[in-house]
Amino acid sequence: MNKRAVVLLSGGLDSATVLALARSEGYECFALSFRYGQRHAIELRRAERLAVMLGAARHVIVDIDLRVFGASALTAEIPVPKHRTGSEIGSATIPITYVPARNTIFLAYATAWAEVLGAADIFIGVNALDYSGYPDCRPEFIAAFERMANLATRAGVEGGTQLAIRAPLQALSKAGIIRTGAALGVDFALTSSCYDPAPDGSPCAGCDSCLLRAKGFREAGMVDPLLGGSVPA
Fold first, then answer.
1. In a domain, 28, yes or no
2. What pLDDT sits at residue 131?
3. What's the structural domain count of the chain?
4. Stretch 183-211: mean pLDDT, rounded?
């Protein structure tokens, strides 16, 4: 039997690259996405396509509603910041696009599915370099969650399986992630990174995520396919 992994798949270029990486390492991948009350459904449609194109054994979309808590520009009627400078994006201030405890919640669901599947690995596309200051993207958080998961699961307590939270993009720049994904055959035209896309899926080109993506493609010496023609919704 192939070794199994749960892969968190948002529909963005980071998670698509992680899914491709896991597949290249011989994992049978079970992709997990969330309809959590985010501003748009474009990323989920992209995740569905990516799961098929990148060979996931199964793709599950879980419904939860983080709008009941709000407090984020992605889950409440709060404007998404646009056209911030590089220093503003890289500041120590946590931006309003941070969704409280989102990665904690996502990893908890992934842990539950990994237990059911008998999977020893969970892959997540967090990144600690070119990112917007989210506390749940830090290496300290990933390490702490891994320790907690092994205290909270039957397999961990009984010694059957030690769960590993794999964050292979943690130390890469956005340009490095793009180069890695391209080498693995990821079709970036199928991804969506924008926090506030148009109804047809076109990126706004002004939110932090769009600006970081543009910087990454520029530094990688590549053209972003989402900016060169029609964009698949």
1. yes
2. 59
3. 1
4. 95
Domain range for 90? 4-222
Query: Any bridge partners for residue 61, and if so which?
Result: 33
Alpha-carbon gap, residue 156 to 175, rounded angstroms: 36
- Does some domain include residue 88? yes
**Res 130: pLDDT:** 58
Q: Which two tokens stand for residue 80?
A: 């998404």
Cα separation of 50 and 191, whole Å? 8
Is the per-residue pLDDT at 144 higher than 60? yes
Is the pTM value of this prediction over 0.70? yes
Residue 35 placed within a domain: yes
Cα–Cα dist 167/127, whole Å? 8
Residue 233 lies in a domain: no
